[in-house]
Amino acid sequence: MTSAFSKAAQERIPGIIARYAEKRGALLPLLWLAQEEQGYVSEEAMKEIAGWLDLTPPQVYETVTFYTMYNRRPIGKYHIQVCRSLMCALVGTDNLLGWIHAKLGIKTGQTTPDGLFTLSQVECLGSCGTGPMMQINDDYYERLTQDKTNRVLDDVKREGKCPLATGPFMFPEPAQK
Amino acid sequence: MAEMVTILIDGKPIEVEKGTLVIEAARRIGVMIPHFCYHPKLKPDANCRMCLVEVEKMPKLQTSCSTVVAEGMVVRTNTPVVDEAHKSVLEFILANHPLDCPICDQGGRCDLQDFSHRYTPTGSQFTDTKRVYEKGFFSPLIEKEMNRCVSCLRCVRYCDEIMDVKALANAARSTMTEIVHFAGHPLDCEFCGGCVQICPVGAITSRLSMYEFRPWMMKRADTTCGYCGDGCSLILETRGEKVIEVMSSHGNGRNNGDLCAKGFFGYQYVNHEDRLTTPLVRQADGNLHPVTWDEVLPVLAERLTQIKLAHGADAIGGLISARCTNEDLYLFQKFMRLAIGSNHLDSTARYGHVNAARALRRVQGTNRWTVSYEDIVQADALLLIGTQVTAANPIVGLKVKEAVKKHGATLLTLETLVPSIETTSNITNLSALHVAVPPGRHAAAVRGLVKAAFDENLVDAALSSRAGDYVSRIRAAATALPYPEGLDEAALRAVAKAFAGARRGVILIGQDLLQAPGGHESAVNLLDFLLLLGKLTQPGWGLAPLTEENNEQGAVEMGATAEYLPGPADVGDAAARTQIAGAWKDQPPASQGMHLLEMLDAARAGTLKAMLIVGENPVRSLPLSAKAASALEKLDLLVVQELFLTETAKLADVVLPACSYAEKTGTFTNSEGFVQKVRPGLEPVGDSRPDWEILSSLSVMMGYPLEYGDAKEILKEIRAVIPGYRVLGAKPEPAQVAAKSVEQYLTRGFAEDLPARYSAGAAPKANSHRWALAVGQTLFHSGAMSTKAQGLLELQHEGKLIMNPADAQRLGIADGDRVRLTSTSGEATVPVTMLGRIPEGTLFFPESFREALAGLPSMTPDPVTGVPYCKQLRVSVDKVGTGGASSGPPPARIAGGK
Ligand code: SF4
Ligand code: SF4
Ligand code: SF4
Ligand code: FES
Ligand code: FES
Questions:
Q1: Which pLDDT score, from 0 to 100, does residue B855 have?
Q2: Does B765 have pLDDT greater than 90?
Q3: A137 in helix, strand or coil?
Q4: Which pairs from B166-171 meet CB under 8 Å and 24+ separation?
Q5: In this complex, is the C-beta atom of B172 within 8 Å of any C-beta atom belonging to chain A?
Q6: Which of B394, B718, B475, B764 is CA-nearest to residue B583?
Q7: What's the topology of domain B4-78?
Q8: Which residue's CA is the nearest one to ligand 5's atom 3?
Q9: Is the pLDDT of residue B362 over 50?
Q10: Which of B495, B525, B528 is nearest to B513 (CA)?
Q11: What's the fold here for domain B105-115+126-270?
């Protein structure tokens, strides 16, 4: 049967489940794996995960909806997450959103017609001293100005990454990149 | 004795068991602490904060729903501080709750309304706009209005903790928390209605009664469900001539307030427009025409008398449905035996329950359970054999779930289903040990269990010394057989071992075992198993057959079968005959009665001339190959008492309209032998009459008056005649194993049919049809009645063949495709759907839609008990059509829905 997970991803699943005393414990990492695979957590993926963990699909869905970091709809190839919490807001979240809109023509929740960029607003990303900031996929971009923002977006669009990146800060670190 | 502690609530001392919650202790002295999320059935969640109280020496207010009493605790529930806290919780809830009480079905029985009234908040500090959820279609039967939700999560917890269905999700977070099914899809679940009933506000309501009532407009009748043998107490809420809704109340009845889809949503057949409202008589033109009771009864009495005079009483037979009340059943057999003078009578207990009843009587001397539902809940090992418990006996299913989930019982299952998590619960998901038993192989599995008792050295030493001959002969017979082919031997042995090692264990058996060849022998063999383990006479242990229809147990006990007089006592039992003759002031006929299949044969042969059929439809219940219709057509006179013009009624010369259970007074006896009241919620529909009343009037006209003022007078006679009905307690008293019977069985009784009981049985005839098809109960239907209940039709309106998804994939079959099934006796074309719980190689078809199978099943009668076996067959499967084609259009949407 077709799966929402690639062969390689499927092979990682037993290992992930084995890390937890209770199967259910593997729910968040498996959802994350699904998101890595498809860019979002599809219904198919939720059902498959439910099957592995002896949960019902509604139980998986409930967890997915609790966390803002799981996308329930397909998103652009590059997910721009702009921090809107207090520190960043004071130093220019609104400006940053405006610059992105000027550059890409999208507002929060929208995706560019070419399917490359999706814009979201999120709560504090832990770079409160270096706002305004945004995260694009796994990379942070801090102390943003309009020029810097334009450059980041151009680079990412062209090459998928930008040397101005200051991340990723991930734990546990992804297996290998 | 539980340890007690004394606490002070609002100055009043109360002594309660250790571990009691403060909110419960308060309730006991009449102090109702307001609450939303607390429910005595559910684990405390303490999420709503409504139940705050002051506890001396604790710095902050405590949630009384999660605080356990402690010796000397001083609790105050009505101080200004507490009141203030309650008010502010309400204020928070009302910040979002809409003011739509005028159109809310909960209005008048809503906790939020009641508490708001109690605290009379007049203003709010909140000026924000209220949250609004987008309204979508939730399900055909259950309506959701999330704007009203107080996020107490009772519904979610009920669906998980009690039902083990887990169909509801608490999606999103904070203010926008919302109760949804998977990914916002329409609800797909067991539709037990539990979430509707447990929601403290109007956020989850029934669509069947939407906008139809205010609670105080309805009349309530406390009665007993007429579907299955679990015997749930329920409340019919009626207005005028219509049942508006069904409810139950927590703590009440054997079901403790839980119901299943049939009980909660299956009531509308009572008011179905096709109900028969007048007697019908076949007239010269060959058609049935309406007549009055005054016209029909004398003529009918005369014809019955004529036939009796011309051909003898033995030319008349009777058949009654075990859905009737005890009073109907009792009067039916008395009418047949005295007014007619014939022992040729039977009930639908013949379709399977007779197998169990006869086995139990033979070995333990009582046909009743020696355990009760409480024993199921308290057992530490439960062995389920062929029960399909969730579908056939949902509330017993809940008892099993409770035993496993709350008390850690070890669940052992010998079932056709295999574990698989889906949108309805699956008892095998909770099994500690599961043996997958294909349809028709349960009898073999039981023989394997008995063999395992020897191979695993589980036989009680005391029994071996007391009844050495019995033990050695059973050993010789059982161990001579190989373990059944295709069943997991190691698992079977492990099951026997686990069960034998329990402190208290109950064996539950159901239709897959009892309605299959070897059903009767298997029941006896399981009693062997319990005897061998030394457990049969131990308290808390027993064999518990589950009944498909609500009053099969009553049918046997009322003597409404060929072999039994009321009691039940054997028809040939001299002492019982003398006793009953004393009560009846007349002798019951001495002849050996014919059971159902024998009566049909006699009708075909022309020796049976007339039949009286009450509430049963053998033309539909038996497969075509039984040729019931042609047999009935040969009768000179066929009388049918019915709710609807069934296939059988259509053949009748006289059709008499009968009342449904919702219009009757009487009693039902559930699987565990508990006698419960049936009370009318409605006046009889049209000119219909209770079955007993029809029979009583007929007897008068036939010059053998069996007159009773009302059903209660019949019950009085029943109580005088039948030992188990003398004292009708508030709780079932499990029967006792009669030592004399066991002794008799151990010394001689066991030997009569020993070879037959422990033979490998006729190997399933090899033929080219390789699929095993089982016809059985589903959650949403029972018999044909449920197919007249609009609510249940909304859930399932046609019979779909269910197969394992892997099988379907192999055959290239998608949901909704049609397949042709071929058996040795015929063929049928049906739509297909898939479920992982149906094992590969096996097919399942819902019994309530069996007419779609037409000539497919063949029938084998049990050589001893005459039970017709027709629910397991072998078929071939061929795909014939693709794509959602379904037979007939879906039923019309229910009015009132959006
Ligand atoms: S099974 Fe369905 S009806 Fe029953 S509680 Fe769960 S969601 Fe509600
Ligand atoms: S729907 Fe009812 S039971 Fe469920 S959380 Fe909301 S208020 Fe509570
Ligand atoms: S059908 Fe059985 S389980 Fe369901 S409500 Fe009626 S008696 Fe209870
Ligand atoms: S406030 Fe923006 S990163 Fe912390
Ligand atoms: S009832 Fe106690 S917190 Fe909800």
A1: 85
A2: no
A3: coil
A4: B166/A55, B166/A56, B166/A58, B166/A59, B167/A56, B167/A58, B167/B423, B168/A58, B168/B195, B169/A58, B169/A59, B169/A61, B169/A62, B169/A65, B170/A62, B171/A61, B171/A62, B171/A65, B171/A66
A5: yes
A6: B718
A7: Ubiquitin-like (UB roll) (3.10.20)
A8: B46
A9: yes
A10: B525
A11: Alpha-Beta Plaits (3.30.70)
Residues A87 and A56 in one domain: no
pTM (2 d.p.): 0.94
Of the candidates A37, A66, A95, which is a domain's last residue? A66
Same domain assignment for residues A84 and A62:
no
Q: Is the pLDDT of residue B92 over 80?
A: yes
What's the CATH superfamily of B371-540? Dimethylsulfoxide Reductase, domain 2 (3.40.228.10)
User: Quick check: B814 contacting A, CB < 8 Å?
Assistant: no
Residue whose tokens read 């994939």: B809
Q: B406: Cβ–Cβ under 8 A, 6 or more apart, which residues?
A: B377
A interface with B, Cβ–Cβ < 8 A, is 1, 43, 46, 50-51, 54-59, 61-62, 65-66, 72
pLDDT at position B896 is 34
Give this complex's ipTM.
0.90
Domain count across chain A: 2
Q: Per the domain annotation, does A171 fall within a domain?
A: no
Residue B621 has pLDDT above 90, yes or no: yes
β-pairing, B62-63 with A139-141?
Answer: unpaired
Q: B182 and A58 in contact by Cβ < 8 A?
A: yes
Asked whether residue A175 is assigned to any structural domain, the reply reads no
Which residues in B lie closer than 8 A to residue A57 (C-beta atoms)? 182-183
Q: Say how many C-beta atoms besides its own lie within 10 A of residue B329's C-beta.
A: 35
- A80 in Cβ contact with A117 (< 8 Å): yes
Q: A83 pLDDT exceeds 90? A: yes
- Look at residues A27, A46, A66 and tell me which one is the last residue of a structural domain: A66
Q: Is the pLDDT of residue B891 over 50?
A: no
- Residues B426-450 pLDDT 10s: 999 999 999 999 999 999 999 999 9
- For residue A167, pLDDT over 80 is answered with no
Domain contains A152 = yes
What are phi and psi for residue B315, nearest 5 degrees?
Answer: -85, 0
Q: What is the CATH number of the domain that holds A38?
A: 1.10.10.1590
A-to-B residue pairs, Cβ atoms closer than 8 angstroms? 46
Alpha carbon of B198 to ligand 2 centroid (Å): 8
Q: What is the pLDDT of residue B862?
A: 96
B672, B698 Cβ separation under 8 angstroms: no
Would you say residue B127 has pLDDT above 90? no
CA distance A99 to chain B (A): 30
The CATH code that applies to domain B771-887 is 2.40.40.20
- Out of B171, B173, B805, the one facing A61 most closely (by C-beta) is B171
Mean local confidence (pLDDT), B136-156 = 96
Pocket lining: B795 vs ligand 2, CB cutoff 6 Å:
no
DSSP string over B281-297: EE-TTSSEEE--HHHHH
Six-digit token string for B85: 């806290």
| Average pLDDT taken over every residue of chain B | 94
pLDDT in tens, B556-597: 999 999 999 999 999 999 999 999 999 999 999 998 899 999
H runs (alpha helix) in chain A:
7-18, 27-38, 43-53, 57-66, 86-91, 93-104, 146-159
Asked if the structure places residue A166 within a domain, the reply is no
Lowest mean per-residue pLDDT among B21-35, B106-120, B513-527: B106-120
Token duo for residue B14: 């109360």
Domain of residue A116, residue span: 78-159
Enumerate residues 385 to 424 of chain B having a beta carbon within 8 A of any beta carbon in chain A. Answer: 421-423
- Asked whether B319 lines ligand 2 (CB < 6 A), one says no
Question: Could you name the CATH architecture of B280-348+552-723?
Answer: 3-Layer(aba) Sandwich (3.40)
CB-count exposure of residue B566 (10 Å: 0-12, 13-18, 19+): buried
Mean local confidence (pLDDT), B640-659 = 98
Tell me how far apart the alpha carbons of residues B100 and B145 are, in angstroms, rounded to a whole number: 11
